[in-house]
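Have a close read of this protein, sequence plus structure tokens, and explain what the tokens say about the fold. Thanks in advance:
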Amino acid sequence: MKVYTNIEDFKDVKNPVVTTGTFDGVHLGHQKIITRLKEAAKESDGETVLLTFYPHPRMVLFPDDNELKLLNTQQEKIELLEKYGVDHLIIYPFTKEFSRLTSVEFVRNILVNKIKTKHLIIGYNHHFGRNREGSFEHLKEYGPLYGFDVEEIPAKDIEHIEISSTKIRKALQTGDVKAATAFLGHFYSLSGKVIEGLKLGRTIGYPTANIVVEDKYKLIPADGIYAVKIKQDGTIYGGMLSIGNNPTVEGKGRSIEVNIFDFDKIIYGQEVTIYFVERLRDEVKFSNLEELKKQLVKDKENSLHITDFHK
């Protein structure tokens, strides 16, 4: 997949078959669009093009919205779109000036003059342009004028799976990672750097890597204990992860800590990726560390069973 952060670099692409949107999560609904995109490109001997935007429009239009959380970082989205077989990814800078383009200006200036779109595929009820004024009806008018075909993924193809990025965010914010997986078609993930912690875990036989997620917009699932998979330096391991305030240990503060099974490397400063498989339980305040240790034995047993099943 070729990635363009400057649309001027996009040129000489044969019969561009295009879709556009934020594609946060690259969930099953998005995958439906990408599948049709690839089919249409094959039919016309063309190449697939996905036009997306960065920063996310809400970051620019509502900069004081502290509630905004996204399913993907920029790098995660790139990796997923490549996984699902997009040929060309254009990441267009979203600015307030760009947001003021009318729907016809967006079509003429970007889709036609810059990308030279031959076939446009959009999701059901897609809107674009200033104040989201543009719609499928507008595109059907513009297509003949500017020499491209337009196709909308039918409502029934999207609605029968009842998927949206908003639903996935709500599932994760309640810890329902199994529902999120069902909507996404892949495990929800987050990546972060390993930093030094209090090293308490190793004193009770469960050393943990403390993870810091640097992207403030990345959605962190609800507090609790999870069975997870961990990718470190290209290798996948099983593990169990805690998100929360570690109530058994006073004053520790909110953290993300993962115990990686069958792993003894020192990886401070390195990046790991966590894949959420299943939520095991809520955080619990134990009366002492011995009680906590007994629970961790059960958590590990459950996590091993779950992650082995999902190999």
Notes: The two ends are 27 Å apart (CA to CA). The CA atoms of residues 27 and 184 lie 4 Å apart. The chain has two domains: 2-163, 178-309.
